[in-house]
Amino acid sequence: MSCCPCRISSRLPTAFSSMPATVSRAEAGQAELELNSEPQTVSGSWTPQGRGHRRPLELLPGGTMSWQLLWLGFLLPMTVSGRALGTTGKEAAVDYLLKYGYLQKPLEGPDDFSPEDIMEALRAFQEASELPVSGQLDDATRVRMRQPRCGLEDPFNQRTLKYLLLGRWRKKHLKFRILNLPSTLPAHTAREALLQAFQYWSDVTPLTFQEVHAGWADIRLSFHGRQSLYCSKDFDGPGRVLAHADIPELGSVHFDEDELWTERTYRGVNLRIIAAHELGHALGLGHSRYTQALMAPVYAGYRPHFKLHPDDVAGIQALYGKKSPGIGDEEEEMETSTVPQVPTEPSPMPDPCSGEVDAMMLGPRGKTYAFKGNYVWTVTDSGLGPLFQVSALWEGLPGNLDAAVYSPRTQWIHFFKGNKVWRYINFRMSPGFPKILSGVEPNLDAALYWPRNKKVFLFKGSGYWQWDELARNDLSRYPKPIKGLFTGVPDQPSAAISWRDGRVYFFKDKQYWGLNWQLRVEKGYPRDIAYNWMHCRPHTPDTTPSGGDTSPSARGTDH
């Protein structure tokens, strides 16, 4: 006999207050656009510790690993994938293992993987999937790899196999808004499924959820088709990508309207379980290694007597604590107030056209930020934006920064000064920050995000560190020499940035260097920061060739 969700329409759980309302797909999109215009945030801890580098695939001697039968699912970050797409060969295996964090794409050394690398990655995948651990691509492993799954990475290895925490909300009472509902279910059934998904989490934590029908909501749920003007991640029709969600404190949860959403049946895609999984991400949970856990990477289908796995409970309680009466916003105010507010030191307003900067960052929404002293300004095609005090934009952040870096992978901004690091999403500090730097030297020179391997590079003197934000990092092999990877770059850069076209730029004193995809300085560099990057006029540039892809409009600007 199926265990049905409680009848929300007649009696709401005690953790909820509800105001039923839905809107059309177009209205939902417009509402999401308006809501997304407000600044939001994320939390988490900065503790780099864990996995080393790997090298691309080779078959094991004797043909013991047959890659010809491997079929991979269609994978997208922070999405749930339904039907597997068939691709074969070792490229598919590399894509799968790299996509989900079992292999690390190297920038140093030869561009290949050894048989030992492959076996270690397979063993980690098998252990995380609760399969017999052999290091071989056996039938059970192939079957597991082609099952529908969530597209979020699995930063598991043989040293750490537990739930992953991606951040948390700084309050325990969250408002949510259901912007529209799927057409494949009666409205009351769909609402019931979504509200039950929230209740799974409120039953085991102090979290409470209140539904609102207009205005701002912390968590917004909506359904849209293949494309939406209000969502950067396109869906692909029935059977593949089912849903995706943002981590705290962003709050968007989107479902593919073209799916056959169902409830209390094995047909189609169970809305309640998928919604609960995506809400787990929205609340800050990554993936669990346990196959029966809600937060397992692979979607297990409809389960009539579903309940949270102990690992789901342990993960969410690690973020928000156990459920107990009498915990409310007063405690949250005390908790958030513990983040120290760092006073800014007086300093004169800098001249952006001097060419010298403390840090540079390609930030959220493609904005380029330049930092000097206690001030920050944006750089655009038309020139320089107004100067603001750093603390006026990022409350609690000091001036005279050492380095700044934005990661599109996590939407985290990290600022470095001395032996401390600050984390923000947009303009709000994550709880628990600043933290003491661990594993790297203090007083960094520069930092950048490298999209080709989704890592953050930290620079000091003539060396660099490579850091994976979502994995445990072993930094004992660092620092490594900058010139061994970035050919032609000066030591002690004052700033670094990875541009939209894949090129990397380093800044020092009043000049900057542009690197191509081979990480070599291109012809015509160094160039003048004030003239070529900041677009300052009048200015007499140094003897710098013009034209082609080295034009000022291709550098340091927003398009």
From TrEMBL:
One of its GO terms (cellular component) is extracellular matrix. Ca(2+) 1 binds at E259. It is found in: Secreted, Extracellular space, Extracellular matrix. Zn(2+) 2 binds at C150, H277, H281, H287, M295. One of its GO terms (biological process) is extracellular matrix organization. Keywords: Angiogenesis, Calcium, Collagen degradation, Developmental protein, Differentiation, Disulfide bond, Extracellular matrix, Glycoprotein, Hydrolase, Metal-binding, Metalloprotease, Phosphoprotein, Protease, Repeat, Secreted, Signal, Zinc, Zymogen. Zn(2+) 1 binds at H244, H254. The active site is at E278. Can bind about 5 Ca(2+) ions per subunit. Ca(2+) 4 binds at D358, D402. The keyword Nucleotidyltransferase does not apply. GO terms for molecular function: metalloendopeptidase activity; zinc ion binding. Hemopexin repeats lie at residues 350-397, 398-444, 490-536. Ca(2+) 3 binds at D236, G237, D256, E259. CDD domains: HX, ZnMc_MMP. Its cofactor is Ca(2+); Zn(2+). Residues 326-351, 540-559 are annotated as: Disordered. Belongs to the peptidase M10A family. Endopeptidase that degrades various components of the extracellular matrix, such as aggrecan and cartilage oligomeric matrix protein (comp), during development, haemostasis and pathological conditions (arthritic disease). May also play a role in neovascularization or angiogenesis. Hydrolyzes collagen type IV, laminin, nidogen, nascin-C isoform, fibronectin, and type I gelatin. This is Matrix metalloproteinase-19. It comes from Equus caballus (Horse).
